[in-house]
Specification:
heterodimer; A: alpha+beta; Aldehyde Oxidoreductase, domain 4; 3 domains; seven-stranded mixed sheet; six-stranded mixed sheet; 17 helices; 25% strand; globular; B: alpha+beta; Ubiquitin-like (UB roll); DNA polymerase, domain 1; Uridine Diphospho-n-acetylenolpyruvylglucosamine Reductase, domain 3; 4 domains; five-stranded mixed sheet; 20 helices; 32% helix; disordered C terminus; FAD (chain B); 2 iron, 2 sulfur cluster binding (chain B); Beta-grasp_dom_sf (chain B)
Chain lengths: 757, 493
C-alpha cells in the first residue's frame, strides 16, 4: 500500500491505486478516438455563423474539388431517420432535419474526406447564406420567452413549498432579500468530443466518449430506425466528462448516416471551438433569495426563485430548489423556477447540475443572513440543523453535516478566525475566512452486472458502466474482491460497452452505489452457490451453516473455522467457473424499472424520492488573501470534510472530492463563457480564453473523509460523491471575500475588478 | 549564393529509431503525424493551440551546451522543424525490465491521474523538468506545469507527485541518460550540413543549412513564411486554416541562437527561445525574467523565440514594450546587407512591420539599464499564469541629480495597433520633478497617446484605467525602496 493514500477510517475500504493508473501514465489507455479502425474516412463539421434564421444556400462546389473529398452531408440528408428526442439526446434540435437555425454554431454540414487534412480544407471552403433573424442571447436581451419550470421536465415536477412563506417572511424580525447570478460555463474536458461510426453489414458500432452506452444505443437506433441490437456503443476510457458526455448530441447520428452512405467508417473529431456550440453547457442562472429569521437565528421563512436560460425548443431545467428547499430547518418555504428561452443551444448537465448554481445562491444568502444576525456562519447553520426536511417532513437517512463542520473547523483552525470584517491582515494581504455547505442527493438506479469466479481465484466483472475518471472500475473490482475473498490483482473489470450488462447513465453520482449494488448481488449469488456446494452431505464443509460462511484468501471459511480452498470447492461442483448475472433494482423501484434499464431509460431512486431523504453532505472552509493594492485574489488553502456513507476507496474518493473543490475554485474565480449579446455567440471558445485553474492557482487542499454508516441508502451503503466536492466552494469563497473586504460579490465569477473600491 | 548540398527529406530520431520523411507538408504538425500517420496515440490532442499540454513530448536537440531535451507542444510543432532532433513521446517512457519510470510511479502513488487524458502530457512535462532539476522547488514545478491543464483538477495530487519523483529513482538510470551518448552520435551524424527542401508549389518547405543559406533562400523566395518556434504560426494553421507555404524553418540555425552581452548591451539572436534567453536576461534585467515566466507555458517558452515575438508584430507580444522602453535596436538582414533600427520604428501599423521582402530579423540588441536608472514591466492578464496579455506597460526612468526626470521611456502593449511608446506622457514627465503631482498631471496625456480597443480580454475603459494606474504603480515603487510590488502565490501562501 502506498504511503500516499489516506488511511481508511471506520466503514471505508482499502485505498488501493486505481486499476488503470499504469495504463494512464504510460499513454496506454485507449480513448475512443484512439481506437484503430481500418479504412477510416475523416469527417469535419461545418457550423452556422448566425444564431437565428434559416439556411438559404449552402455552397459546396469548391469543397468538392479538394483531392480526397468523399462526400458532404447537409439538410435533407437525414431523410428516413428520426430527429433526436430531448432527454437521452442533448436536444430535440435535429440540425440536418430542417433548414431552421436555432443557435450559433449549429451543425449545417458534415464534410468527409480521405484524410483529416483534406476534410478540414474542404470544410473551410463551404460557405452558407442565411435568412437571418435577430437573435436573443439570453437574459436582458429582446425576444426571449419565459415559461414555468415546474412540470416542464420529468426531473422537475413542481416548485416545492412548505407552510405560509409570505406570512412568516413578513413577520420575521431579521430578513434579507438579495439577487445572485451564475454564468454560462462549458465543461471543457481535455479530451475532444468525437464520433467514430463503423458499419459491418447492418451492424453499427459507435466509438465515442460517453457516460451512457446503453441509453445511446437505444436512442441512436430509434433515430436510425434500426433494431437496438444492431447498434453497439464502445467507450473504454473517457477523457473527462463532467456531464458533457451524458446526453447524445446530434452529431452521432449524422456521422452514422454518413458512414452508411459512404460504405466506410467515418471518424469526426470536433474542434475545441466547435464543441462550445455543438455540445451542452451549464445554463446561466439568476436567483432571488429571501430569508427571514428570528433574532436567535432560527429561520422562519426561505424563498428561492430561479431563472434559467435554455434553448427555444427544449425545456432543460436546472431546478436546484429541490435541494435548497430541503437543506435547513426553515419553517416555511416558497420556491419558483422560470425558464428563459433564447436562441442558444440547449444547456445540459454539468458537474452537480442543480446544486452548483442554486446552493451557491443559498449559501451566499446564508452567509449574508449570519452577518445580519451577527452570528458565526457555522453557528448559524448549527442553529438551523433540521431533524426532518421541511418540504415532505421526511427524516434524513443519515446527515453528518455538523460532524463535517466540526472536523473541518478543527483542521482549518476556524476558532482563530476573527469575526469582524476586514480584521485579519498579513502585511499587504487582507485575509478572509469563509464557509459553505456542500450537499448532493444520493441517487441510485437499476443496474445489471455479470461476475465470474474461477477456481484459481481469478474474477471478472462486466458492467456497461463508464470509467470517466471517477475510479468506478477500481471500486467495482474492490467490491468483487471483497465479496469473493480474492486478491484485487486477480480481478479484471470490463466497462464502457453497450454489449455488456446494462448500467445507468454515469451521472448524478449514482454509479458507485448502483454498480456496486449490482456487483454485490452477483457476487452474493456466487457465494451462495459455493456455500451450498461445500456444505452438502459428504462435501468438504458438510453441515456448516451457510449463513455463517465467508470467502477469504481464496478459501471458503465456515463459522466453526473449517476451511476449503476455492479449487476444492469448485471441484465439488465439477466446474472451474461460476458465472452469475445480477439485476439490481433499488427499493421502491417500479415494476417496469428493469425493462427501462435495458431500454436505456433508467429510473432513479434515492435523493428525496424515497421514504427518507438521502443526501450526502460536506463542509468547506476556505481562506482567501486579497492584495490591498492590486486586489488580486489568492486561495492559499481550502479544507473540506465530507460524509458519504461507505467509502469504497479513500484514495479515489479523496481524488474526486479534491478535484471537485478545485473545480469550485475555478468556478468561483475564473470560469465564464462570455456571450456576445448582439449575435448570441460564445466569444471565448478555447482554453486560451476560457480560463480554468492552472497548478499555480491552487494552494493547499485538504480533504477529510468523515466516517458515516447508512444501511438505508442502498445495499452497498454508498452515497455518491463525485459531484459533492464542488457544491459550496464558490459560496465559501464569496463568504471569505466578504470577510476579508466587506464587499459582497453576488455574481460569479468573483474577479478583482469586483473588489475595487 | 549558398553552396549547401540539398536533401529532399526530413530526418530525425523518433524514440529509439531514425525516421526519414519524404512526403511532408509544410504545415503538418508533429501531433497529427504521430497520431494519424504513425498510429502512436499515447500523445493526446486537447486544444490544438498549445494551451492544454495534453500533446506534450520532449524534443532533444544538439546545442552549444550539448544535448538538451525540452518539453514542447506537438500540436503546434511542425514536422519540418524537427530535422536533426530527437523526438521522445510517452511511448518511449516505458518500463525497463517491467519497472515504470520514477515519474510514472510517483504519478500512480499520489493519484495524479483521474480520467487520464492529460496524464501523458503531465508525465512528459515532469520528465523534462526532472532531467534538469531532480529536486525542484514548488515554484519550479509550477513553472514547469504552467502549460499543462488537468480538468479533473488533480493539481494538488500532481504537485505532490512532482515533489516525490526523486524518491522513486535516480537520473543516472534514466533511459535517456543511459542512451545519451548513442543519441548524440546519431544526431551528430544527421547533421550533414545540407539544406532540406521538400515538396513543391503550394506545399513546400525549406530548412536552410545555416544563416547565410537562410538569407539566400529568403532572397529567392521573399514571400516565404519564416517559422522559428511556431507558437504563433502553429495557430494560423490549426485554428485559422491559413496557407503558409512556402515555409522556411529557422529554429535550428545556430547562427541565430546566440545570446551574449557586450559593452552593456545584450544581443539576442532571432532564434533564441524564451527558455534560452531566461538565464542571462533574468540575471541582468530581473524584471524581464519575471515577465518571461508569465509568457505561455513551459512548452511555449521552450519553442517560442524572442525574435518571433518581435517579428510577427502582434500588439500584445510581451517582449517589444519592455525592449522599447530599454531603448533596444533591431538588426534586419537581407542577403548580406544589414541595417539596424530603433525597435519602435519596426512597428508601423497593425500587421505591418518595417521588413522588406526577402529581409529577416537577425537580432535584437537590448541595453542593460544603468545602475542609477529604474526599470519595470507589468503584465495584466485575467489569469496570472499562462494567459494572454490584456495590457502591458514598461517603464525606464533616469533621474537627474536634482530629482527631476532626466529621461523616461514608457511603452505599452495591448493599447494600440502596435507596441507603442507613450510619447506624449513621456514629454509631460521629462524635465519635471519626479513627484506624485507630476505623475498625476501626466495622466491626461494618455488620451493623446492611446485609443485602445474593447475586446474579450478587456474593455477600452479598463485598458486606459489600467495603463494610467501602471504609471502610478511605477511611481509608488520608486518611492518605496528598491523592491517591486509583487503578487505571487508564494507570498500569499
Amino acid at each position: 500500500m502506498s504511503k500516499e493514500a489516506p488511511a481508511p477510517r471506520e466503514n471505508m475500504g482499502a485505498p488501493v491505486p486505481r486499476f488503470d493508473a499504469r495504463l494512464k501514465v504510460t499513454g496506454g489507455a485507449t480513448y475512443p478516438a484512439d481506437i484503430p479502425v481500418a479504412d477510416l474516412a475523416y469527417g469535419v463539421l461545418v457550423t452556422s455563423l448566425v444564431a437565428r434564421g434559416s439556411l438559404a444556400q449552402l455552397h459546396t462546389d469548391k469543397a468538392a474539388t479538394v483531392p480526397g473529398f468523399l462526400g458532404l452531408f447537409r439538410h435533407g440528408d437525414m431523410a428516413g431517420t428520426q430527429p433526436p428526442k430531448f432527454g437521452v439526446a442533448a436536444s430535440s434540435i435535429g440540425p440536418l432535419h430542417g433548414d431552421r437555425i436555432f443557435h450559433d454554431g449549429q451543425i449545417i454540414a458534415l464534410v468527409v474526406a480521405e484524410t483529416y487534412e483534406a476534410a478540414m480544407e474542404a470544410a473551410s471552403l463551404v460557405t452558407a447564406e442565411y435568412d437571418e433573424e435577430r437573435p436573443s442571447a439570453g437574459f436582458d436581451t429582446q425576444g426571449t420567452e419565459t415559461t414555468p419550470g415546474a412540470g416542464a421536465s420529468p426531473l422537475f415536477g413542481e416548485d416545492v413549498h412548505a407552510g405560509d412563506f409570505d406570512a412568516a417572511y413578513a413577520a420575521a424580525p431579521v430578513k434579507i432579500d438579495e439577487h445572485y447570478s451564475t454564468p454560462t460555463q462549458h465543461h471543457n474536458p481535455i479530451e475532444l468530443f468525437s464520433t467514430t461510426a463503423a458499419w459491418r453489414g447492418d451492424q453499427l458500432t459507435i466509438y465515442e466518449p460517453t457516460q451512457n452506452v446503453t441509453g445511446w444505443k437505444t436512442e441512436l437506433s430509434r433515430q436510425l430506425g434500426i433494431d437496438p441490437n444492431r447498434v453497439r456503443v464502445i467507450s473504454p476510457y473517457v477523457g473527462g466528462a463532467f456531464g458533457s458526455k451524458g446526453p447524445m448530441t446530434a452529431r452521432t447520428a449524422i456521422v452514422a448516416v454518413a458512414a452508411r452512405r459512404l460504405g466506410r467508417p467515418v471518424r469526426c473529431v470536433v474542434t475545441r471551438m466547435q464543441a462550445y456550440g455543438t455540445q451542452t453547457y451549464r445554463a446561466e442562472t439568476r436567483h432571488r433569495v429571501r430569508i427571514g429569521a428570528e433574532r436567535g437565528g432560527h429561520i422562519t421563512a426561505f424563498g428561492h426563485e430561479g431563472w434559467e436560460v435554455t434553448s427555444r425548443p427544449d425545456a432543460y431545467v436546472v431546478g436546484g430548489t429541490i435541494a435548497t428547499g430541503r437543506l435547513y430547518a426553515y419553517g416555511s418555504v416558497a420556491t419558483h423556477v422560470d425558464l428563459v428561452h433564447a436562441d442558444r443551444n440547449t444547456p445540459g448537465y454539468m458537474r452537480s447540475p442543480p446544486e452548483t448554481p442554486y446552493v451557491y445562491a443559498l449559501e451566499n444568502a446564508m452567509d449574508e443572513m449570519a452577518v445580519a444576525l451577527a452570528m458565526d456562519p457555522i453557528e448559524f447553520r448549527r442553529v438551523n440543523e433540521p431533524t426532518r426536511e421541511p418540504i415532505g417532513g421526511k427524516p434524513f437517512s443519515s446527515r453528518s453535516l455538523l460532524a463535517c463542520y466540526d472536523e473541518a473547523s478543527k483542521a482549518f483552525g476556524w476558532s482563530d478566525r476573527e469575526s469582524a470584517v476586514g480584521s485579519m491582515r498579513d502585511g499587504d494581504w487582507m485575509i478572509g475566512m469563509g464557509c459553505a455547505t456542500a450537499v448532493y442527493p444520493t441517487n441510485i438506479a437499476p443496474c445489471a452486472a455479470r461476475v465470474q469466479l474461477m477456481a484459481d481465484g481469478h474474477a471478472r466483472v462486466q458492467c456497461g458502466c463508464h470509467e470517466i475518471g471517477t475510479g468506478i472500475r477500481t471500486v467495482a473490482g474492490q467490491m468483487a474482491a471483497e465479496r469473493l475473498g480474492v486478491e484485487l490483482t486477480k480481478v479484471s473489470v470490463e466497462m464502457g460497452d453497450s454489449a455488456l450488462p446494462p448500467a445507468p447513465v454515469s451521472g448524478g453520482s449514482n454509479s458507485t452505489a448502483s454498480v456496486c449494488s449490482a456487483v454485490m448481488k452477483a457476487c452474493d449469488a456466487i457465494r451462495n452457490r459455493l456455500f451450498l456446494a461445500v456444505s452438502g452431505e459428504g462435501a468438504p464443509l458438510a453441515g456448516a451453516a451457510n449463513s455463517g460462511m465467508s470467502l477469504g484468501n481464496g478459501q471458503v471459511i465456515a463459522a466453526d473455522g473449517r476451511t476449503v480452498t476455492l479449487a476444492d470447492a469448485f471441484a465439488t461442483l465439477q466446474t472451474v467457473l461460476i458465472e452469475e448475472y445480477a439485476e439490481f433494482t433499488p427499493k421502491g423501484a417500479s415494476p417496469q424499472a428493469l425493462k427501462k434499464l435495458y431500454a436505456g431509460q433508467p429510473e432513479f431512486r434515492g435523493g428525496e424520492r424515497d421514504d427518507a431523504v438521502k443526501y450526502a453532505f460536506g463542509a468547506e472552509l476556505v481562506e482567501v488573501r486579497i492584495h490591498t493594492l492590486t486586489r488580486e485574489i489568492r486561495i492559499p488553502r481550502i479544507v473540506g470534510a465530507f460524509a458519504a456513507g461507505r467509502i469504497m476507496n479513500p484514495r479515489t474518493a479523496r481524488s474526486q472530492l479534491m478535484g471537485g473543490m478545485i473545480w469550485g475554485i475555478g468556478s468561483a474565480l475564473q470560469e465564464e463563457t462570455e456571450v456576445d449579446p448582439r449575435n448570441a455567440r460564445y466569444v471565448n471558445k478555447d482554453l486560451q480564453d476560457y480560463l480554468v485553474p492552472v497548478n499555480a492557482d491552487i494552494g493547499d487542499v485538504q480533504v477529510i473523509l468523515v466516517p458515516e454508516t447508512d444501511p438505508q441508502v442502498n445495499p452497498a451503503g454508498v452515497k455518491g460523491l463525485g459531484e459533492l466536492g464542488n457544491v459550496g466552494t464558490p459560496a465559501a469563497v464569496a463568504s471569505a471575500v466578504y470577510h476579508a473586504t466587506g464587499i459582497r460579490v453576488r455574481d460569479l465569477p468573483i474577479r478583482l475588478d469586483n473588489l475595487l473600491t | 549564393m549558398s553552396s549547401a548540398p540539398i536533401r529532399n527529406e526530413i530526418r530525425f530520431l523518433l524514440n529509439g529509431r531514425e525516421v526519414t520523411v519524404r512526403d511532408v507538408a509544410p504545415d503538418a504538425t508533429l501531433l497529427d503525424w504521430l497520431r494519424l500517420d504513425r498510429s502512436m496515440r499515447g500523445t493526446k490532442e486537447g486544444c490544438a493551440e498549445g494551451d492544454c499540454g495534453a500533446c506534450t513530448v520532449l524534443v532533444g536537440k544538439l546545442t552549444a551546451g550539448g544535448l538538451v531535451y525540452e518539453s514542447v507542444n506537438a500540436c503546434i510543432r511542425f514536422l519540418g522543424s524537427l530535422d536533426g532532433c530527437h523526438v521522445v513521446t510517452i511511448e518511449h517512457v516505458q518500463p525497463v525490465g517491467g519497472d515504470l519510470h520514477p515519474v510514472q510511479k510517483a504519478m500512480i502513488d499520489f493519484h495524479g491521474s483521474q480520467c487520464g487524458f492529460c496524464t501523458p502530457g503531465f508525465v512528459m512535462s515532469l520528465y523534462g523538468l526532472w532531467m534538469k532539476d531532480a529536486n525542484p522547488s514548488d515554484a519550479t514545478i509550477e513553472k514547469a506545469l504552467q502549460g499543462n491543464l488537468c480538468r479533473c483538477t488533480g493539481y494538488e495530487a500532481i504537485m505532490r507527485a512532482a515533489r516525490a519523483i526523486s524518491d522513486y529513482g535516480k537520473g543516472a538510470s534514466d533511459p535517456l541518460a543511459v542512451e545519451r551518448a548513442a543519441v548524440i552520435e546519431k544526431l551528430t551524424k544527421l547533421r550533414d550540413g545540407a539544406r532540406v527542401e521538400v515538396g513543391s508549389g503550394k506545399a513546400r518547405l525549406v530548412v536552410p543549412a545555416d544563416v547565410d543559406d537562410f538569407a539566400a533562400v529568403l532572397e529567392a523566395e521573399p514571400k516565404a513564411t519564416i517559422v522559428a518556434g511556431s507558437t504563433d504560426v502553429g495557430l494560423w494553421v490549426t485554428k485559422h486554416m491559413r496557407d503558409i507555404s512556402p515555409v522556411v524553418f529557422i529554429g535550428h540555425l545556430e547562427g541565430l541562437r546566440r545570446i551574449s552581452e557586450k559593452d552593456g548591451v545584450i544581443t539576442i539572436g532571432a532564434g533564441v527561445t524564451y527558455t534560452e534567453a531566461f538565464d542571462l536576461l533574468s540575471q541582468r534585467i530581473p524584471a524581464l525574467g519575471e515577465l518571461i515566466n508569465r509568457i505561455g507555458g513551459e512548452q511555449v517558452r521552450n519553442m517560442g523565440t524572442i525574435g518571433g515575438n518581435i517579428a510577427n508584430g502582434s500588439p500584445i507580444g510581451d517582449t517589444p514594450p519592455p525592449f522599447i522602453a530599454l531603448g533596444a535596436t533591431l538588426t534586419l538582414r537581407k542577403g548580406a546587407e544589414r541595417r539596424t533600427i530603433p525597435l519602435e520604428e519596426f512597428f508601423i501599423a497593425y500587421g505591418k512591420q518595417d521588413r522588406q521582402p526577402g529581409e529577416f530579423v537577425e537580432a535584437v540588441h537590448v541595453p542593460v539599464p544603468a545602475k542609477d536608472s529604474r526599470f519595470a514591466v507589468y503584465k495584466i492578464s485575467k489569469r496570472r499564469d499562462e494567459d494572454i496579455t490584456a495590457a502591458l506597460g514598461a517603464f525606464h526612468l533616469t533621474l537627474a541629480a536634482d530629482g527631476t526626470v532626466a529621461q523616461i521611456r514608457i511603452a505599452y502593449g495591448g493599447m494600440a495597433a502596435t507596441p507603442k511608446r507613450a510619447a506624449a506622457v513621456e514629454a509631460v514627465l521629462t524635465g519635471k520633478p519626479w513627484t506624485e503631482v507630476t505623475v498625476e498631471a501626466a495622466l491626461e496625456a494618455y488620451a493623446q497617446d492611446f485609443t485602445p480597443l474593447t475586446d474579450m480580454r478587456a474593455s477600452a475603459e479598463y485598458r486606459m484605467l489600467a495603463a494610467r494606474n501602471l504609471l502610478r504603480r511605477f511611481f509608488a515603487e520608486t518611492q518605496g525602496g528598491s523592491e517591486p510590488i509583487q503578487v505571487s502565490r508564494h507570498q500569499a501562501a
